[in-house]
Amino acid sequence: MRYQLLPGSSMPDILIRGLTASEIQSLDRLAALEGHSRNAVIRDMIRRSLRASAPIDPEEARGLFDLLSDLGDESIMSQAWR
Questions:
Q1: For residues 22-38, average pLDDT
Q2: Which long-range contacts (CB under 8 A, 24 or more apart) does 3-10 make?
Q3: pTM surpassing 0.70?
Q4: Where are the beta strands (DSSP E) in 16-78?
């Protein structure tokens, strides 16, 4: 099936089927947290996925390292398995 461009549009629309209500709610929560639309969040996810081989953005890496900093703390990690 080929998609037709909408009049006045330079890009085709994409329909995503098979998402659960829970997945849509999670997507909407993420969009609200980021202050973006659902479409913008999905577009950003797709673009990140497509450039997965690109270098990691230093700011994104710092955020990830901040989230993972507890992994080296034995007292915190021992509580994770209780």
A1: 92
A2: none
A3: no
A4: none
How does pLDDT run across 31-73, given as a tens digit for each residue? 999 999 999 999 888 888 877 666 778 888 888 777 777 777 7
Residue type, 73: D
Distance separating alpha carbons of residues 57 and 22, to the nearest angstrom:
30
The whole-angstrom separation of Cα 29 and Cα 21 is 12
In angstroms, the CA 31 to CA 24 distance is 10
Contacts with 11 (C-beta within 8 Å, 6 or more apart), sequence order? 5
Distance CA 49, CA 11 (A): 19
- Which of 79, 56, 68, 13 lies closest to 4 in space, CA to CA? 13
